[in-house]
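Internal ticket #5521
Category: modeling
Description: The requester needs a full-assembly model to guide mutagenesis choices. All entity lines are attached below as received. Residue total reported by intake: 511.
Assigned to: D.W.
Attached entities:
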Amino acid sequence: MRAFRLHLAAAAGLFRRDATVYFSYRWRLVTQHVGVLFSLAIFFYISDLVRVPAFASPGSYFAYAAVGVIILQVLQSTLDVPTTVRQELVAGTFERMAVSPFGPVASILSLFLFPLVSAVVTMLVTLALTALVFGLDPTWERVPLAIPVAAVGALALGAVALLFVAMVVRFKQAPGAAYVLALISLVAGFYFPTALLPAWIRWSSDVQPFTPAVDLLRNLLVGQPLHGSAWADVAKLVGFSAVLLPVGVAAVTIAIERSRRLGTLTEY
Amino acid sequence: MPLIDDDRSDLALPVGVEPRAAPAGDPLLVVEGVSKHWPGRDAPTLDGLELRMAPGDVVSVTGRNGAGKTTLLRILGGLLSPDRGTVELDGLRLGRARRAYQRQIGLLTPGDRGLYARLTVARHLDLWARLALLDGGSRAAAIRAGAEQFDLGEIAGMRVDRLSMGQRQRVRLALAFLHAPRLVLLDEPATSLDSVALDLLHGAIDDAAARGGMCLAVGPEGVATGLAARRTLLLRDGRLEPA
């Protein structure tokens, strides 16, 4: 129990460090939201062009796409961690984590805490701004339920991020992280229904955790009907995360041990 | 048996690992046959290196540029694994009881890296005390002692990117000594230090040695490491020999 408490205190220390650094750049909070508002404005005007049976009105397409933009922000948060680890390597601070009793793997896992919390807060702020500026009408009473769903969805992508962290530790770069996000937004239906995808690629919507995450969040945030049972989507999301996370942790552990043996752990 | 005799007496104790007392004079650090061969180099950088250090030992290792001094420190610090050989600290074998081993180690890396530009000195001390898995009471005592030892009181609230190089080095040194490790590894510790700061460093090393800790500092041949070393060794052809 004492050891657990000490590990928790160490993780909290890294969370506070990330928060301190984040808020030390005072305009970051503003620019981050302004950027999202621009994206939403684009979809707001595009939605005026949408007249298809899948969406009853231009407004319903905007709600669909807006939630996609918001969810993308949440998921993207964990994909920034490989970049953070690379910065730690360059700054020489990763060495300190590696020689600390807390250890490099626990430190890397702790680096996900601030991005996750920050992403959930950002999701709520963006939702409020979208309602205020573009007249989106979220189902506010169900928003609290969306928070754990968003967190589990981000954790599932966190597992993918851990694979990229392993690449950064081992090879000092992780090309492809941006492409992964683009691919996910394509096959998970962030901006358009997956039914529009060609048949040969549609299967990919069912074999990753992001489609159920997006469907659930869309249902919770703007009342978009689900295709099947909500519990089936929850089970799929939790199941994917439960399987993928240990794989990600194992990959990072192996990368660190291998780099120790090769003598490249301190290289960047 | 407590490892150190002040109010930080529990700081160096690994979680769940009972420290074993070494009789005075018996080696606490035993390095046997350590070799490391970097790719692209004809000869191994370290070649069957042997080193023994007893409680209170202060050792200075010199050698030419590229002789393998930093490689040695990184191996002892647990950042690199040797190709061959073993490292044992107070009965803890490096690579086996890693967490317990790391609790006993303090490492100052070379240069001025390893700090967060936008974090204050106080936040650095707090963060590294947490990463050293010190509990609340010990953490506060360690931070206080570290700040006093390296005279960081006046700059505690300042961000690191606003400090001079010498001040940064004092912060880095405080972090290396913070959790009262049994073995402090220092890579060119005197870098950027003025005479007052050098005295602070000597004081910290003396305190650590008086508590039964050990210090190993490395620096280039012909340049002072900043230590009042009891032994000076030369690293040449991958092995240590009396300087």
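Resolution: model delivered.
Comment from assignee: The interface with chain B takes residues 2-3, 5-7, 9-10, 12-14, 16-17, 20-21, 24-25, 91-93, 95-103, 107, 260-261, 263, 265-266 of chain A (CB under 8 Å).
Ticket closed.
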